[in-house]
Design brief:
alpha/beta, four-stranded parallel β-sheet
Length: about 130
C-alpha cells in the first residue's frame, strides 16, 4: 500500500471500546496507519476503567474527548470497525466494514475491562498486520 491506510473505530458512546482500539492501533502502528474513533451518541468523557486499563500499558486516553460520528469520518476511512453495538454507519462503496462483537466496558470495574482491552489489542494487532502487509 503506497499511502497510509485510514481506520475508523465506532461504538455508541466513543468512550470505551473505540477509544481503546484507536489508542492501541496508534501505538502499534507508529504512524503507519491513520486512526480515528467516533460514536453515534458520544459520552461526555472517556470511561475511567477503560482509561485505567490502558494506563497499565503506558497509554493515556484520559484526556480524549468522545466525538460524534460523521459521514465525513466514514468517507475518509478505508476500514470501518464497529464495536458490537449495532451502530448504523453510512455505507460507501469501496470501504471495508467489520463488526467486532465486544463486551461494553461501561459501568464495569477495571478488572472486568482488562479482558476487553486484551481482546481489542489482539484484534488491532491482526488488523494492523493485515493492513501493513498488503
Amino acid at each position: 500500500m503506497t499511502r497510509v491506510p485510514e481506520v475508523l473505530f465506532v461504538c455508541v458512546h466513543n468512550a470505551g471500546r473505540s477509544q481503546m482500539a484507536a489508542a492501541l492501533l496508534q501505538h502499534h502502528a507508529l504512524g503507519r496507519v491513520a486512526v480515528r474513533s467516533a460514536g453515534s451518541e458520544p459520552a461526555d468523557k472517556v470511561n475511567p476503567a477503560a482509561a485505567q486499563a490502558l494506563a497499565e500499558w503506558g497509554l493515556d486516553i484520559a484526556a480524549e474527548i468522545p466525538t460524534k460520528l460523521s459521514t465525513e469520518d466514514v468517507e475518509a476511512s478505508d476500514v470501518v470497525i464497529t464495536m458490537g453495538c449495532g451502530d448504523t454507519c453510512p455505507v460507501f462503496p469501496g470501504k471495508r466494514y467489520e463488526d467486532w462483537p465486544l463486551d461494553d466496558p461501561a459501568g464495569r470495574v477495571v478488572d472486568a475491562v482488562r479482558p476487553i482491552r486484551d481482546e481489542i489489542d489482539r484484534r488491532v494487532r491482526a488488523l494492523m498486520a493485515e493492513l501493513l502487509d498488503a
